[in-house]
Amino acid sequence: MLYKTFAAEGRHYVYDTVSNNILIVSKKIAGFLDKKIPFGKLKEKEKELVKKFKKDGLLRTEGFSKFKFDFFDNFDNYFALTKSDVKKLTIVITEQCNFGCRYCLYGGGYKYRKQLSGAEISLKTAKRAVDFYFKNSGNIRQKNITFYGGEPLVDRERLFEIIIYARKKYRAENLRINLTTNGSLIDKRFVDFFSDNKVFINISLDGPGEIQDRFRIKKTGEGTYNLIQNRLEFIKKYNREYFDRFVAISVTVNPPYEFNLLEKYFEESDLLRSLRLDLSYVEEKDAGQLAPNLSSRSLYRLKAEKESLAIRECTGKLLREEKISDLYRNIFFSRLKTIQYRDKAKMGDVLEIKGPCFPGLSMVLVSVKGNFHICTMLDDEYRIGDVENGLDSERTKKAVGDIYKFIKSNCKNCWAVRLCHPCLAKFNRKEFLPKRSDLCFYRQAVLLESLKSYIKINNYEKIKL
């Protein structure tokens, strides 16, 4: 069915997929739409309203019969933009790492993922990647190069030389350089170099010791919390200005999704309170090494429950004009923006697919071998070019076609399809048809809670259809 009924603030609503709108209805109409009340039990005014909605093409029980995917239908036009509008370059500088994090995508715990090889990118390959990026990002004012791993700090001299190359050769004032690190190897020389070259660093810290040491461990099995706390304290003491301006914390939320504990920790920490938090989730698809007693389905449902609770808490704080923590803002406002800025154009039988990023345009990731891939969340299955030949049109089109075909096969009857942004990072060709129902349940549950929050915040009884 292309609609979803729900109640909020003592009233009944229905989100309509075709119009991407939220309609106010009576309790009986909601019951009828949920097939709990026969049509004959409705009042005459209610019957007329339902007939009007149906006549306008709303409240459809059948799915979309045709599809339009702009990235696929106008592929050549989008691919042409990769000659001038590549937004970001990510360089995998090494596949070596001094940690053995249990949830690492490349740590050997995921059935369909490769393991880190220990290889490093050559200076020649890295410089070619930088040259490619500047050549193909002419229309991008704020340029962005990110260093990734493995652990990028394991080869200091190679990292320094590549950064110096980018800074000296192009001297771009609008070039932002980022680096994601576990933070364990940071010393004075690193801080001095990063400060001189204005390098933003994201240090991975998942929360207090009992959370950090659960999965982010050394190869010996030893926890890493005390080590990372020590390195953060060192940076702050050694160069406070750099710490305040250029350091952020990367938080990977993992089972059992203890949002309240995380919020309390980061808000009450004198060391970390002022730092920006970037939030991501560990993959649930192969969760055996993370929560042996929970299936992937159970993890998705637990995640939906905890995130929905966080949304309700944030809604209450917003209505009471209380401060919302940076960690909760990462969860809450991204969900609300999806609803606030939704496209309200009415669709007929044709579903216009929107949401995914165009491969090679939002980001180009270069591997240690010099191959181009789509992003850090995908394995090598989607190779879309290399440093010698640039982006490959046919390979890129294949990636776009894969997600297009998947959506056509799985999403035509889903009420949430216009609010759910498809992403290639959630599957790859090796696992092209995993059980999607668990992920879809999670997304639908969180979207439904977000719709209720949106109603409460916007005093929706004042909005006319």
Condensed summary:
The chain has 465 residues and is of the alpha/beta class. It has helices at 27-33, 44-55, 70-73, 75-81, 123-135, 156-170, 188-196, 209-215, 225-238, 240-246, 259-268, 296-319, 326-340, 393-410, 436-458; strands spanning 3-8, 11-16, 21-25, 66-69, 89-92, 143-148, 175-181, 199-204, 247-253, 276-281, 350-353, 364-366, 371-373, 383-386, 390-391. It is globular.
Describe the structure.
This protein has 465 residues and is α/β, with parallel strands linked by helices. Among the domains are: 3-62, no CATH class; 93-294, Alpha-Beta Barrel (TIM Barrel), CATH 3.20.20.70. It is 40% helix and 16% strand. It is built from 15 helices and 15 strands. It has helices at residues 27-33, 44-55, 70-73, 75-81, 123-135, 156-170, 188-196, 209-215, 225-238, 240-246, 259-268, 296-319, 326-340, 393-410, 436-458, and strands at residues 3-8, 11-16, 21-25, 66-69, 89-92, 143-148, 175-181, 199-204, 247-253, 276-281, 350-353, 364-366, 371-373, 383-386, 390-391. The strands form 3 sheets. A 10-stranded mixed beta sheet has the order 10-9-8-7-6-5-12-13-14-15. The protein has a 3-stranded antiparallel beta sheet with strand order 1-2-3. Helix 13 (326-340) crosses helix 15. The longest helix has 24 residues, at 296-319. The protein is globular. The model is unreliable at 461-465 (pLDDT under 50).
